[in-house]
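Running low. Got one?
___
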Amino acid sequence: MKQYESRQFTIGAIFLVVGIIFLIRLFYVQVIDSHYKLDATNNVLRTVVKYPARGLIYDRNGELLVYNEAAYDLMIVPKAIKEDFDTTEFCDLLEIPRAEFKDRFEKAKKYSRYKASIFEKEISARSYAKIQEQLFNYPGFFVQTRTLRTYPKQTAAHMVGYVGEASPKIIEKDKYYKSGDHIGISGIEKQYEQVLRGKRGQEVQMVDVFNRPKGKFQDGAFDTSAVSGSNLILTIDAALQAYGEKLMQNKKGSIVAIDPSTGEILALISMPTYDPNLLVGRERSKNYGKLSQDTLKPLFNRALMAKYPPGSTFKSINALIGLQEQVLTPSMHYSCNRGYSFGGRKMGCHPHPSPVDLEYSIQTSCNAYYCNVFRSIIDHYSTAEEGYNVWRNYVTNFGLGKKTGIDLPNELSGFVPETEYYDRYYVKGRWHSTTILSLAIGQGELGFTPMQMANMVTAIANRGYYITPHIAKEINGRTITEFDSTIVRNETGVEAKYFDEVVEAMYKVVEQGTGTSARIDSLQVCGKTGTVQNPHGDDHSTFIAFAPKENPKIALSVYVENGYWGSRWAAPIAGLLIEQYLRDTITRPAIEQRMLEGNLIGTVPKIVGNAGE
């Protein structure tokens, strides 16, 4: 009997232990281990990201510059892929090789076996129509909608920028972004990313065994709506931008045009350029590779990043500094004997009557005159270092040699040397005004961007100040100044009364001096030509201008690389742009035709776009 009871106890203990094991296992499976729960959930539920439409971008006149078109991402949940999956048939449907399918599948599994990730991104509406009909045959795959940017004008690529996939570094830094999200990479798209991107939403769907949606889970209790990005109106004039790009086609250089009264950018042109649609969708990576390897550097934004000596356009600034420092008067004359001799050296000058006063010095662009002016500024102080620092302070007050603060990324600062720079090269206390005399005519170590030069001429047009240049005008009906406190009036330190003589001289430059190719009948255009020395080839052609002389509506700088004289290419291009903007017509078709047909770079590769292509 005792033996029977002992066996009964043993058997009961075994059943108890087995029961406890099952209970523990059941607790582990249902509570601790999410493996089966995820399997079950992914078999019946699908979370679809609802991407917001990015905000639209318009020019100042309401012309649409950037809008959105529907596209589709093919998503994959690796755990839901069936063992009998027909890889060959699926690859034929997507038009991808089997090896690529395998690589993408392994990448998706590495990311997560249970969470959806992108398998094929940015499928066009046309391609999606074919895929959609067969997708139910491939459980584990589904499609989510997104939008792609489209650029109908095919212009202003450097200014508008482009959108690309958020990198792992960005995702780690900003928790808003997830794998597969788009983000502004350059230009306005990057600068105003948080304004344009909107807010992501989601929809939780129930699906059947064939991966077909069967309605919302719990009537959409867990769904959130996507919020579209804010629309953005730019200060750019799309017609002026396109016209400027046409004039600069087959040339290297830049144009920046500003409304002096507001600091609004009217055109920002960097050439060569490219069609911004090349950097959209599935072909973006391939096209970016071609553009980045192009020797003409179409991705390089010359307007904000190229540094050129200002050349003779800078003489107007030296004249203003001399007047403010009272070492120069309008009636003061200096002789020019084909140049300026100093210390056994000579800085040459072109033939013209001598001596010259202030007005005529600007009109004829006399080098000798500005050597005298520059020396009188520096030598007015007890040491060259002190005089140079005073001079340098005026120069930077015109927005030169430093970032202008424009609301675009990647702007460079340019270069106006500090005294320490010359101390290193010439030894402190042993350099003088003649040591750095090339600064008198805008050469030497000076390096300014076209953006800074446009800002400089804006300050002249305004008789002593400039408004921080900006390219955004309105966000959802509110002016940009309501959002951006950095847009302010900046004083040059030169009194307004000293500008009259310089402005009048710049008017004479266009009427009867070196800039007559920019002259427009019955319109007072003020300008200054420049020939920028280039040690790597032909000199650069440059021109600064504004119009009308009183209450100016447009100020601009033009750089044409290897264009030689400022009067040859830069001045006529500037004149045509001024006439187009102020009169919406061109009265000098012969000059226009010469500018349009001018080719300073030879054959242009097809990947590089010209305006309107």
About this structure: Residues 238-597 form a domain with the Beta-lactamase fold (CATH 3.40.710.10). Residues 35-40, 604-613 have pLDDT under 50 and may be disordered.
